[in-house]
Amino acid sequence: MEDCLFCMIAEGKIPSKKLYEDEQVVAFYDINPQAKVHFLVVPKKHIVSAAALTEEDGALLGHIFAVIAKLAAEQGLNNGYRVISNVGEDAGQTVKHLHFHVLGGEKLPV
Ligand code: 5GP
């Protein structure tokens, strides 16, 4: 989608520090990390937020969580990590393209 930051990152039109890419998803480090390790996993398909997911996205979601687990292991997050997806203004969603924050590498505040 035009004018969507994460679509442009997924298409390589805007540079990012990519960790992983396949046909369905891209993962890259957050530009403003909130933990020692902070990366984002993003579907290439433009979906506004988790609130816009449908039953048909079930396989995509399963794939996203498999990628998250693989990347977390590769990043050495063996002691745990947090997965967050903000939905809408009250949650602080700033980029209107579904993304999953993966945070870890240290004890996270509860
Ligand atoms: P949200 O607030 O929507 O849940 O998360 C958006 C995230 O995208 C924020 O953590 C923010 O730091 C990150 N972000 C915003 N712009 C860019 C960018 O141009 N590149 C990268 N790598 N991350 C970005």
From TrEMBL:
A motif (Histidine triad motif) lies at residues 97-101. InterPro entries: Histidine_triad_CS, Histidine_triad_HIT, HIT-like, HIT-like_sf. Residues 5-110 form the HIT domain. GO terms for molecular function: catalytic activity. Pfam families: DcpS_C. The active site is at H99. PANTHER family: HISTIDINE TRIAD HIT PROTEIN. This is Histidine triad nucleotide-binding protein. It comes from Faecalibacterium taiwanense.
